[in-house]
Design brief:
This protein has 439 residues and is mainly alpha-helical. It contains 17 helices and 5 strands. It folds into 2 domains: 201 residues, Preprotein translocase SecY subunit (Orthogonal Bundle); 227 residues, Preprotein translocase SecY subunit (Orthogonal Bundle), CATH 1.10.3370. 66% of the residues lie in helices and 5% in strands.
Length: 439
């Protein structure tokens, strides 16, 4: 405990780090305050707080702003959707590939295109949000056209403001700003969910509640292992004589993450899982099979839903890993810089070796990711309430763990640069190597 307080004191001793932490806290407070400002023309007492399904997951990420019909009702999600679209286009469209290779100028153009696409997506999602997520009796403004136009404008401005807050956190604060906004929205729901679960259990089921907390602890530790786990491929660089000095000759590593895809497979799979129930609902009256599909895939605890969900996550994990990690590019960069994997020929053989290793580590990673994704369903089957069960896995837990680890890494870098002892006894976060080959 003494060492912990000493580390906290060291953190606030560094002026730059202290200012960045205070800036981050200030920006996050502004974001949370905006989540409670309701759109003009809406009676908040008539809003439905119980949002289920994929909308419930979205509401959790936004910290309740979605169900509150606030000016940040869509939050940063349209920007994330636009970023995903641009990232996929970068993999497939030559124009975007060319922009990516142009350096800073290309990145500025991509960012500008992403912002314009964000506005378009916000208008589309905002229209669906106003039409389907807000009860008709909650709208008190008589002129529906004026309400829709003003609300779309405010929602778009709110999303752009959230995007600006995220960029300010990245520049002036600590951690990745966009990820921090999502994480603070998720964490804001945790105390209330925990208190609700504790009150529900009461003293009669206090032991069961303690077992839930213990299970949550082990699930979080497992997710940390999944996030940090890497397969290091040794790379040897040939010695080069430049003038009177000898360069190279050292051994470094290529870190291939067990979960290179992050939370994207869960997001993609979750986005598609509502389609079977929707399509089945249209034909439910004329077909018994369609009615069965609609009923089964509307139940998040059914084995059919969870099996399909897990399989889709595994498939999307391989797909997203394939488009985000390019073994051919890694092999070419190594060959250009005079690096080689011991026992493997440079060029095509190196690319095939990296691809084989990547496939082998991705399979257990995708399997583990699928298990983490369906853990909330098992938690609900065990009797955990819906709100608290979402923290036992899925997108929420993966985002929280990933963002917290990334933020701790940045804080530790500041400490080590000022020659303070890091946050771990080893002086660095576990799972990270000092010798990493950058491809």
């Amino acid at each position: 405990m003494k060492k912990f307080f000493s580390t906290i004191r060291n953190i606030f001793t560094i002026e730059d780090l202290r200012v960045r932490i205070l800036n981050t806290v200030g920006f996050l407070i502004i974001f949370r305050l905006g989540s409670f400002v309701v759109l003009p023309g809406i009676d908040p007492s008539k809003l439905d707080d119980n949002v289920a399904g994929i909308l419930g997951i979205l509401d959790t990420m936004l910290g309740g702003a979605f169900s509150n019909a606030s000016i940040f009702g869509l939050g940063i999600m349209p920007y994330i959707s636009a970023s995903i679209v641009i990232q996929l286009l970068t993999m497939a469209v030559p124009y975007f590939q060319k922009l990516q290779k142009e350096g800073d100028s290309g990145r500025k153009k991509i960012n500008q295109i992403t912002r314009v696409l964000t506005i378009a997506i916000t208008f589309a999602q905002g229209s669906a949000y106003l039409a389907g997520a807000i009860p008709a009796d909650a709208i008190v403004l008589e002129n529906k056209f004026l309400f829709t136009l003003s609300s779309l404008t405010i929602l778009t401005a709110g999303t752009i403001f959230c995007m600006w807050l995220g960029e300010r956190i990245t520049d002036k604060g600590i951690g990745n700003g966009i990820s921090m906004l999502i994480m603070i929205g998720i964490i804001s729901r945790f105390p209330g969910s925990l208190m609700q679960e504790a009150v529900t259990r009461g003293m009669s089921e206090a032991l069961f509640f303690l077992l839930e907390i213990l299970a949550l602890f082990f699930v979080v530790m497992a997710v940390v292992l999944l996030t940090q786990a890497v397969r290091r491929i040794p790379v040897q660089y040939a010695k080069q004589v430049v003038g009177n000095k000898v360069y190279g000759g050292q051994r470094q590593y290529i870190p291939l993450k067990v979960n290179s895809a992050g939370v994207m497979p869960i997001i993609f799979a979750q986005s598609l899982m509502f389609l079977p129930s929707m399509v089945g609902g249209y034909f439910a009256e004329s077909s018994d099979v369609a009615q069965y599909v609609a009923t089964t895939f509307s139940n998040f605890q059914s084995w059919e839903y969870n099996l399909t969900f897990a399989i889709m996550i595994m498939l999307f994990t391989f797909f997203y890993t394939a488009i985000s990690v390019n073994p051919n590019q890694i092999a070419d960069d190594m060959k250009r810089n005079g690096g080689f994997i011991p026992g493997v020929k440079p060029g095509k053989a190196t690319s095939e070796f990296i691809d084989t290793v990547l496939t082998r580590v991705t399979f257990p990673g995708s399997l583990f990711l699928a298990v983490v994704a369906i853990m909330p369903a098992f938690a609900q089957m065990a009797g955990v309430n819906t709100n608290f069960a979402q923290f036992f896995g899925g997108t929420s837990l993966l985002i929280m763990v990933g963002v917290i680890l990334d933020t701790l890494q940045q804080i530790e870098s500041y400490l080590l640069m000022r020659h303070y002892e890091g946050m771990m006894k080893s002086g660095k976060l576990k799972g990270r190597s000092q010798n990493i080959a950058v491809a």
